[in-house]
Amino acid sequence: MIASSAIFGSATEIGIEHHGELYRLKITRQGKLILTK
Predict the structure, then answer these.
(1) 27 burial class (0-12, 13-18, 19+ CB within 10 angstroms)?
(2) What is the pTM of this model?
(3) Contacts of 8 (CB under 8 A, 6+ apart)
(4) Cα(18)–Cα(33) distance, rounded to whole angstroms?
């Protein structure tokens, strides 16, 4: 398991490339995660 803080650091949004597609993973103000394409 990986802690989200290890992935995000001080950022609230990161980009993830998966099978040639770019996805954005964002931490909301409520502390939830949203994954968008």
Answers:
(1) middle
(2) 0.85
(3) 14, 27
(4) 17
pLDDT tens-place string over residues 3-37:
999 999 999 999 999 999 999 999 999 999 999 99
Q: Domain residues for 20?
A: 4-36
For residues 22 and 28, is the Cβ–Cβ distance under 8 A?
A: no
Q: For the chain, what is the total number of helices (H) and then of strands (E)?
A: 1, 3
What whole-number distance in Å separates Cα of residue 37 and Cα of residue 34? 10
CATH number assigned to the domain comprising residue 20 = 2.10.70.10
